[in-house]
Write a structure and sequence with these properties.
By secondary structure, the protein is α/β, with parallel strands linked by helices. A 7-stranded mixed β-sheet has the order 3-2-1-4-5-7-6, sandwiched between helices. Strand 1, helix 4 and strand 2 form a beta-alpha-beta unit. Helix 3 packs parallel to helix 4. The chain is globular, with a radius of gyration of 17 Å. The two termini are 24 Å apart. 34% of the residues are buried.
Length: 227
C-alpha cells in the first residue's frame, strides 16, 4: 500500500505544473515515453482496452491514445486534481473513464489488453509491488501486456549514489525555480525504489512469462512484461 493521503496531497500541489516540468525532471524524456510504446505496437497492433495506473494528468495516456485512439481507457490515480487535468486533456472523448482510487489495493474495471504506468509504482513497498503485479497479471487478457516506465535504483550503492548526484546536477541545469526543486525533494521522500533486476524477479514471481527491461538511462527505465 502506498502512503495514499501524503502522495495525493503532494501531487495535488503540483498538478497544474506537472506536464510542463516533466522534460526538466526526466533526462531522455522522449525516449523514456516513446520506446516502450513503439515496442508494444510491434507486438500488438490492436489493443481495445488500456488501464493507466497512477495516470496523473494523462501524459502517458496521451502517448498511448496517439497510437490506439479507438481503445477504451481507464485512468486511475489517488490525486483528484491530477485527474482533473486529464479530464480536460481528453474532454469530449467518450472512450475515457476516470477513477480516484489507490490501485495498490485493487484495480478498477474488468480485464485489459494493456496495463501501463509511468513514474508511480516506485512509491510502493516491495511487498505492495509484488501484490500489485499479481493483480495486474490476473486482470490482463490472454497475451496481455504490462508496461512500466519508472525510477529505479542501480544495482550497487556506489553507482546509485552517482546516479542520484547526476540527476540532481541535471535538475540544477534545468532552470527550475527553488520552490520547484523543494517540491521535488519532498516527493522524493515518498520514493521506495528498487532495482531493475529486483523488479524483473518480482514480475517473474507474479507468473509473467516474458519480462524484459527495454530501456534504461541511469535512474529511469522501462520494463515490458507479457502474460
Amino acid at each position: 500500500m502506498m502512503e495514499t493521503d501524503i502522495v495525493s496531497a503532494r501531487f495535488n500541489q503540483i498538478a497544474s505544473k506537472y506536464d510542463e516540468q516533466r522534460r526538466y525532471f526526466i533526462p531522455g524524456f522522449d525516449d523514456f515515453y516513446k520506446t516502450g510504446i513503439s515496442l508494444v505496437l510491434k507486438i500488438r497492433r490492436e489493443i481495445k482496452s488500456i488501464l493507466d495506473l497512477g495516470a496523473g494528468t494523462g501524459l502517458l495516456t496521451k502517448y498511448l491514445f496517439d497510437n490506439y485512439p479507438d481503445a477504451r481507457f481507464t485512468l486511475v490515480d489517488v490525486s483528484d486534481k491530477m485527474l482533473d487535468i486529464a479530464r480536460q486533456r481528453f474532454s469530449g472523448m467518450e472512450n475515457f473513464k476516470y477513477v480516484v482510487s489507490d490501485y495498490s489495493e485493487r484495480l478498477p474495471g474488468n480485464n485489459f489488453d494493456l496495463i501501463a504506468s509511468a513514474l508511480s509504482i516506485h512509491h510502493l513497498t516491495d511487498e505492495s509491488k509484488l501484490n500489485l503485479y499479481y493483480n495486474v497479471y490476473d486482470r490482463l487478457d490472454e497475451k496481455g501486456l504490462f508496461l512500466n516506465l519508472d525510477q529505479f535504483n542501480a544495482e550497487t550503492e556506489l553507482i546509485n549514489k552517482c546516479y542520484n548526484e547526476l540527476w540532481y546536477d541535471y535538475l540544477l541545469r534545468s532552470n527550475l525555480a527553488a520552490d520547484e526543486l523543494e517540491s521535488w525533494r519532498q516527493r522524493r521522500e515518498l520514493d521506495r525504489e528498487n532495482s531493475i533486476s529486483d523488479t524483473l524477479n518480482l514480475l517473474n514471481k507474479a507468473r509473467f512469462k516474458t519480462v524484459e527491461c527495454i530501456y534504461s538511462n541511469m535512474k529511469f527505465g522501462v520494463i515490458l512484461a507479457m502474460k
